[in-house]
């Protein structure tokens, strides 16, 4: 007896399903589902765009932080080194007139001056620049007034003495110059007041 090729584990006939089992939907139901899927799609696209924008902002902020750290990472060290520069300057200003000194001491003073120049050069190479204050109009952004001096020969508000020099690090204030400011002299002109 020949075997039937259609015979096997599966039944020969499939039962007919009812309309409820086929999940036949009405056109209104399909349109409502399409609108719901479109809304979900729009929401997901919006979330995706926001996530991409946020990731880009995080990358940009990280790059700015790296650049800021590269520029200003030596700030604390530079402030500490400024006290060394101040002490070298004080030592040189306390030295009496060189002509009255013996040659050995003159050589020491020459060496200290060379050391001070080299220190200033190193600071400048790393973005630390000295604020020129003497003879300039007082600027509260860069100068700290320690005292006022009566001097009618100098326009009022002019820096007449620099007690401690000020410094900038990559254009940002590292330390304000401590200065004496004139008072009682003629008023500054508008053009002279705009100088730094």
TrEMBL record:
Kindly give the PROSITE patterns that the UniProt entry links to this protein: GRPE (PS01071)
Under the heading Gene3D superfamilies, the entry gives:
3.90.20.20, Head domain of nucleotide exchange factor GrpE
Subcellular location as annotated: Cytoplasm
Q: What molecular function terms (GO) are annotated for this protein?
A: adenyl-nucleotide exchange factor activity; protein homodimerization activity; protein-folding chaperone binding; unfolded protein binding
Location (main, coarse): cytoplasm
- Positions of the region Disordered? 1-28
Task: Give the GO terms filed under biological process for this record.
Answer: protein folding
SUPFAM superfamilies with a match to the protein in the record: Coiled-coil domain of nucleotide exchange factor GrpE, Head domain of nucleotide exchange factor GrpE
Q: Name one Pfam family in it.
A: GrpE
Q: How does it assemble?
A: Homodimer.
What exactly does this protein do? Participates actively in the response to hyperosmotic and heat shock by preventing the aggregation of stress-denatured proteins, in association with DnaK and GrpE. It is the nucleotide exchange factor for DnaK and may function as a thermosensor. Unfolded proteins bind initially to DnaJ; upon interaction with the DnaJ-bound protein, DnaK hydrolyzes its bound ATP, resulting in the formation of a stable complex. GrpE releases ADP from DnaK; ATP binding to DnaK triggers the release of the substrate protein, thus completing the reaction cycle.
Name of the molecule in the record: Protein GrpE
Q: Which source organism does the UniProt entry give?
A: Enhydrobacter aerosaccus
């Amino acid at each position: 007896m020949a075997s039937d090729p259609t015979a096997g584990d599966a039944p020969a006939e499939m039962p007919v399903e009812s309309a409820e089992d086929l999940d036949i939907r009405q056109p209104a139901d399909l349109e409502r589902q399409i609108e719901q899927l479109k809304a979900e799609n729009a929401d997901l696209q919006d979330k995706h765009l926001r996530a991409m924008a946020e990731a880009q902002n995080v990358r940009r902020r990280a790059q700015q932080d790296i650049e800021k750290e590269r520029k200003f990472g030596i700030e604390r060290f530079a402030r500490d080194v400024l006290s060394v520069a101040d002490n070298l300057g004080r030592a040189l200003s306390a030295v009496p007139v060189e002509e009255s000194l013996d040659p050995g001491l003159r050589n020491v003073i020459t060496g200290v001056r060379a050391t001070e120049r080299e220190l200033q050069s190193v600071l400048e190479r790393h973005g630390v620049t000295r604020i020129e204050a003497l003879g300039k109009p007082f600027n509260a952004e860069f100068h700290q007034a320690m005292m006022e001096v009566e001097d009618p020969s100098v326009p009022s508000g002019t820096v007449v003495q620099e007690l401690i020099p000020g410094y900038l690090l990559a254009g940002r204030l590292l330390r304000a110059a401590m200065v004496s400011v004139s008072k009682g002299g003629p008023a500054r002109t508008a053009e002279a007041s705009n100088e730094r």
